[in-house]
From TrEMBL:
InterPro entries: MetalloPept_cat_dom_sf, Peptidase_M10/M27/M57
GO molecular function: metallopeptidase activity
Protein's recorded name: Dual-action HEIGH metallo-peptidase
Organism: Chitinophaga solisilvae
Pfam families with a match to the protein in the record: Peptidase_M57
Length: 199
């Protein structure tokens, strides 16, 4: 997908890229051309899967239920008619969100989609972001959900250009390296990107 080897860390069952993107070693990697503009992975959710993305909240994350609800609402009000995200409590789900100690400097990690399904895991470094404002905590969760539905970092290389988006977007919630300092709502271009992916 065009990442420099210096940004890839082997973490046992997965590779961690740019600190917050998790690639399971058994995932399908799409064939794609590289781009330096606002981008996606080249692997998106099937129509049926995008219409019903189910997030299960692990017991370790229940104290951030309001932040998760706010993050889900951002994606559901993005204007992407083909995308609907819900929080579920049953045994059937697409994405598990759980607390994981990721070390200092890493707020969360998402997993890119594969085979038409959403990335199956979001890890949030709850202790690390606990002192951040509500808006910044929900930003971290919103950002990681973005990865799980195929949206890459706006301000870094790799991936496929999303039609109609600019080369840079200073107010994109999907910019990397902005834990506790970045945009707390989806930018107009973030919304345009998800609308293009899931019309």
């Amino acid at each position: 997908m065009g990442y420099p080897s210096s940004s890839i860390v082997d973490n046992g069952d997965a590779y961690i890229v740019e600190g917050d993107v998790r690639f399971p070693k058994d995932m399908q990697v799409p064939d794609s051309k590289l781009s330096t503009e606002q981008k996606w992975t080249g692997s998106k959710l099937s129509v049926a899967n995008a219409a019903n993305v189910r997030i299960k909240v692990d017991a370790s994350m229940t104290s951030m239920g309001a932040e998760i609800t706010s993050a889900v609402n951002q994606w559901n009000t993005s204007g992407a008619a083909g995308l609907h995200v819900t929080v579920v409590t049953g045994a059937s789900y697409d994405i598990l969100i759980k607390d994981t100690n990721l070390g200092a400097g890493i707020c969360g990690q998402g997993t890119f989609p594969s085979g038409g399904a959403a990335g199956n895991l979001i890890q949030i470094n709850k202790a690390y972001i606990a002192g951040n404002s509500f808006a910044q905590r929900q930003r971290t969760i919103t950002h990681e959900i973005g990865h799980n539905i195929s949206i890459m970092h706006t301000n870094q290389s790799g991936g496929l250009q999303i039609t109609g988006t600019p080369i840079t977007d200073a107010i994109s919630l999907m910019n990397a390296g902005q834990c506790n300092s970045g945009a707390t709502v989806l930018s107009p271009n973030d919304k345009k990107a998800v609308q293009w992916l899931y019309p």
